[in-house]
Amino acid sequence: MNIVSYIHPTRTYLPCTGAGRHINNTLLGLASHEKINLELLCSRQWLQEDGKLDPSSPLSDIPLKTFPFPENITERFWKIAQFPKMDCYIPKKIDWLFTPMETYIPVSRCPVALTIYDLQAFEPNLPWSHTRQHRWFRYKWSQWIYKALSHYRVIFTISEFSKSRMIELLGADPEKIVVVGCGVEQDFYDIASADPFHFKRPIDLPYALIIGGLRLRKGADFVLKVTEELHARSSDLQILVVGDSEPEYIAAAKELPNLKLLGVVSDSDLPQLLRCASSSLFLSHYEGFGIPAIEAMAAGIPSIVSNCASLPEVVGKAGIVVEPNATTTIVDILIELKENSSLRENYIQRGHTHAAQHTWSRCVERLVNAFYTFA
């Protein structure tokens, strides 16, 4: 089967977000699949002097086709005018045009498969849903998403939650939506059997790790309250945060001696940071999936998540699901997991079994099965 995949190369550069990991791992899996012949498509502006993508993209060795127009301007024309048609840049003998991103590509002769990670743009009850910035975000998405849902043959998404929101908020056809899920890199599974005391720790004190930075969407407001109560109780448990943080929360973090911002860390360092933690805390307001929750389980530590959006579905009974504003309860759980080794081990074992279900190879097989089913 011949597939061309349209990408934004910058989203694939390492280190990348959860969506970037999904793009990289699913496309690498398709490229190595015995039934698939994969080529990439992107704007020529992203080529290096050697004619390839930037080497920080894991996809740089996959065969690549380009079009001559700038990416941003081209996509605006696609979404507003459904022009230019991209057939002249796609081989005639193609079975699918596939994009692992939320965008609209006008074509005439081949079926299209699109990935939509979440419906945050259309959610009415998030803390930021009525801000001017979010209304503009919703408007931009509304210019193309209904056309995509109507014109494209398959819509991939990453959780049953996201599928249900497409149906409820946009009236999408459930028969066209395929849930492929997300996976975790093998490094996280491999490190679960390692003794954490053999690693160099970022701090000497015990800590819980947060992945995603201190940001409003990721529940920074909840995290700060948890950190404050830990400090008020004189607990030695520290809160370490990985990822970019928003300025107002960076300022607030400086006032808390038990909160440390690590910034962006390399993909090679993240499994070790998780393995040395007593638990993972993920109090996000909204996720289409929530890869950090599964990464923690795969690495061999308990995963505590908010009861919001997809997170209860993703962790199942193997995770600890909490009301994100139940600060006292969350602090009790964090301290108990640090001090009660039998309880911690119970969640580690449950998490390890659960995480084994979430592999990138399974995601790729779901993609391939759907391509053949809907062809």
Q: What shape does the CA trace take?
A: globular
Side by side, the strands of the main sheet go 3-2-1-4-5-6-7
Strand content: 15-25%
Count of DSSP helices? Answer: 14
Number of domains: 2
Question: Per CATH, what is the topology of the largest domain?
Answer: Rossmann fold
Structure report:
The chain is of the alpha/beta class and 375 residues long. It has two domains: 2-183 and 359-374, Glycogen Phosphorylase B (Rossmann fold, 3-Layer(aba) Sandwich); 186-355, 3-Layer(aba) Sandwich (Rossmann fold). The protein is 38% helix and 15% strand. It is built from 14 helices and 13 strands. The protein has helices at residues 18-31, 71-81, 132-142, 145-151, 160-170, 186-191, 220-232, 247-253, 270-275, 291-299, 311-315, 327-339, 341-355, 360-374, and strands at 2-6, 37-43, 64-67, 96-99, 112-115, 154-157, 177-179, 207-211, 238-242, 259-263, 279-282, 303-306, 320-322. The strands form two sheets. The protein has a seven-stranded parallel sheet with strand order 3-2-1-4-5-6-7, with helices on both faces. Strand 9 (238-242), helix 8 and strand 10 form a beta-alpha-beta unit. Helix 1 crosses helix 14, helix 7 packs across helix 12 and helix 10 crosses helix 13. The longest helix has 15 residues, at 341-355. It is globular. The termini are close together. The model has no long low-confidence stretch (mean pLDDT 96).
